[in-house]
Amino acid sequence: MKVDSGIETKCVQGGYTPANGEPRQIPIIQSTTFKYDTGEDMGKLFDLEASGYFYSRLQNPTCDRVAAKICALEGGSAAMLTSSGQAATFYAVFNIASYGDHVVASSAIYGGTYNLFAVTMKKMGVDFTFVDPDCSDEELENTFKPNTKAVFGETIANPALTVLDIEKFAKSAHAHGVPLIIDNTFATPINCRPFEFGADIVTHSTTKYMDGHGAAIGGCIVDSGKFDWMAHKDKFPGLCTPDESYHGITYAEKFGNEGAFITKATAQLMRDLGSTPSPQSAFILNLGLESLHVRVKRHCENALAVAEFLSKNDKIEWVNYPGLEGNKYYGRAKKYMPDGTCGVVSFGVRGGREAAETFMKNLKICAIETHVADARTCCLHPASTTHRQMTDEQLIEAGVGPDLVRLSCGLENAQDLIDDIAQALNKVL
């Protein structure tokens, strides 16, 4: 496959090119361990002097081939799979921020991510400042501290659907010598490639659109290879000074900007924490990736049709979809995602929580699920489910009001979805 192949071709054939007589599908290497003829041969792998595999907790050929495909889709230099999107987020941040460090994060992020940052990583000694994604340059500037190590945001926030001004956040991060980490789950690299706008590291919950069928949980981290770690070596000793837990290797020196971040995350974090993806799950993920470019287009078409219907229905208080003309983020979405945003629409049913519950229990095609970004349409009330650990004040800060309903439009007939929504709304008094 050509390096400059279209993204559609990369979806189908990226990451793996079989040789003569080899399997057309990526082989599932369902093995925990790998045999070597001598201890010396294996020792070279442990010393990172040779490439290969010795234990699937760290790396596995099936997983690496799928990671290579996602890396190609994002236009990165290196990538790794994790067992979940939550693990990917944690590894991406913890790889450069630890006890005593500080991170700036958009307040409009997935509730699980907010809890990871505000509660769990806080217990680990990492301090977070949450900033309104629509803040002014001055407000953003005031969030940085001498010990700030990264900036984090979501391309399209789940479920607030806030579209991040990637260039603004990248410019601010780089002015302070730190990378911008972007969760690109909702947009996918089909609709947005954050590296082209200055982001440095991208994460994904591959459980969502990339898998697309509710079959396999997973995550991915992709490094752009563009952030100059050694230029800011005082800020990043984990990458720029010898790692005594791994033979005294200095990752940034040995692997350069292109490989340091992912190598450290693999050799250190995956070694010690073990959020390992299974080869079987990676195989299933790859099947989803092969049709990603086709499915995302249909998801967006259905979502726009539903959003337009909802915007004209008198039982709907408000509709939020960045692809809908007149939306607050329509212009920004056109800048960063000119071909479409995502398949998720959020809205409020007149009457608040009670009305929303009546609406959802009367849906026939649209199922109430925790999931999102699936081939099948699903619906959720985040305030009472995925974000229930947050206070009403925190919900509002995150852009997730108590009345918000999240509808993830699948691949069904658009009119069938609209008809189902209409009949459920008719049950609301």
Helix percentage: 25-40%
Kindly give the count of domains: 2
> What is the CATH class of the largest domain?
Alpha Beta
Taking strands numbered 1, 2, ... along the chain, how are they ordered across the largest sheet? 1-7-6-5-4-2-3
- List segments where confidence is low: pLDDT < 50 over at least 5 consecutive residues: none
Q: What is the N-to-C order of secondary-structure elements (H for helix, E for strand)?
A: HHHEHEHEHEHEHEEHHHHEHEHEEHEH
Q: Can you say what the CATH homologous superfamily of the largest domain is?
A: Type I PLP-dependent aspartate aminotransferase-like (Major domain)
What CATH architecture label of the largest domain applies?
Answer: 3-Layer(aba) Sandwich
Cα-atom radius of gyration: 22 Å
- The SS-based structural class is alpha/beta
Question: What descriptive keywords fit this protein?
Answer:
429 residues; alpha/beta; Aspartate Aminotransferase, domain 2; 7-stranded mixed beta sheet; 5-stranded mixed beta sheet; 38% helix
Task: Give the helices and strands, then pairings.
Blueprint: H1 7-13, H2 39-46, H3 61-74, E1 78-82, H4 85-94, E2 102-106, H5 111-123, E3 127-131, H6 137-141, E4 148-154, H7 166-175, E5 180-183, H8 188-191, E6 201-205, E7 219-223, H9 237-240, H10 251-273, H11 279-290, H12 292-311, E8 316-320, H13 330-336, E9 344-349, H14 352-361, E10 367-368, E11 378-380, H15 392-397, E12 404-408, H16 414-425
